[in-house]
Amino acid sequence: MIVHIIGQPGSGKTTLSRELETFIESTRGVFGVEPILIDGDEMRRIFHNQDYSETGRRKNLSTAYGIAKFLNAKGKLPILAMVSPFLDLREELKTECDVLEVFLKTSETRGREGFFVKDYELPESNFIEIDTSKPLKDCASLLIDAVITRLTQ
Q1: In the beta sheet, which residues pair with residue 128?
Q2: Of 19, 54, 68, 142, which is most buried with the most CB atoms under 10 A?
Q3: Residue-wise pLDDT tens digits, 120-147
């Protein structure tokens, strides 16, 4: 399975992904998977891609998705924390792998609004939504419960 945490900048993708990664690491014997966080900002630094045009974003996502599919095939639990604004790419990934898509939204102002993707394409099907305006503990519990459910199916 790939856990794909998506949403606008500042919605809490990295924060919740780290919470999930820590939980899975602490229970590795129970679920038998090693989590590996793939963060969009880190991807851009590693691959020197500061192109925020549609072409640059698609390239960054394609690279991250390829890495996630590779790790998944090796028995790891990739946790993608990326803006991922393109519905077609997200849906294509879902057809290729078992993906738990988690859409994050918030009503709070967090200082990243200037980086929002104007034409962000909202998920349409087969996803869960978490409002990160709520306390971190509650959001993390929702995410962890969803992942546990999928891992134990």
Answers
A1: 102
A2: 68
A3: 999 999 999 999 999 999 999 999 999 9
